[in-house]
Amino acid sequence: MRFSLWAVGLMAVASGLSGCGKDGGGENAPGPSAKDLVAADVATFKKMNDADLVTYDGNNNHIFSKVFGGASSQDLINYLDLRVHDYAFKSDLSVSSRGLGLMDGWADSGPHVIALNYGAQLWLEAAIEGVQALYSNRGAAPVEVTSTRVGLIVLTQYYPQLQSLARQSILLHEARHSDCTGGLPKSNIVKIKEALRQKDNEAANALFGRCGHAHVICPSGIYSGMAACDSESWGAYAVGAVYARAMAANASTK
């Protein structure tokens, strides 16, 4: 039996950072690969002024170093490299294990979805189904999905339309979804499968705990009914926001 974890929510939507409100469109136009698109954003992390980051961190209760393990450009790179290892468009991917419904609902996700931590979601669904999952990106050698930190991020066609700060924040947001804080007991996996069979996504989310740091259904606002809100203090949106606020603060002092 197939279950889709789409409602669990390991995605980034276009929030106030981007102001994106585009209509639907094709999957992705021919052109640069997903890796090519993110290369400039990752390079930006390497060019940051460490002195500015240290100053911001010291003036803000060391919130930057609490999230990223330090207040330097290398700390940002380390945070990302530990959690993200591959980027793709949906059309680039092939998944070897049959019976996985991970892309169910993608076409109905709307124009707000910018990126998805597909690797974490793939591992979670494979664990629930009791199968071994592998994926191939653009025909490359298959990659075995052994944990949430396989680090595969899928981008939508809206990613390159955003401003650079929003794109960089989204990469860090998606990286947070690679963390399975506290682990996921096998006993919970059995209960999650039953909850999803009953279409009780709220119960499934509770059983996941902090594994994947999944979003919850927004009770109101423009994302009402979508799995696009956090129910914890240091979820994926908080990680992206800490970075964005630090960059905005440094820009305002120049």
Question: In summary, what is this structure?
Answer:
This protein is of the alpha+beta class and 254 residues long. 40% of the residues lie in helices and 13% in strands. Helix 6 runs antiparallel to helix 9.
Count of alpha/pi helices? 9
Apparent shape: globular
Strand content: 5-15%
| Count of individual beta strands | 11
What is the average of the pLDDT values? 82
Estimate nothing, just give the exact number of structural domains.
1
Helix/strand-derived category reads: alpha+beta
Extract low-pLDDT stretches. Answer: 1-8, 15-29, 102-108
As a whole number of angstroms, the C-alpha radius of gyration is 18 Å
Order of helices and strands: EHHHHEEEHEEEHEHHEEEH
The largest beta-sheet arranges its strands as: 1-4-7-2
Main sheet overview? 4 strands, mixed
Distance between the termini: 57 Å
Which bin fits the share of residues in helices?
40-55%
Structural write-up:
The chain has 254 residues and is of the alpha+beta class. It contains nine helices and eleven strands. Strands 1-4-7-2 form a four-stranded mixed beta sheet. Strands 3-5-6 form a three-stranded antiparallel beta sheet, with no helix packed on it. A hairpin with a 5-residue loop joins strand 5 (134-137) and strand 6 (143-144). The N and C termini lie far apart (57 Å). The relative contact order is 0.20. The model is unreliable at 1-8, 15-29 and 102-108 (pLDDT under 50).
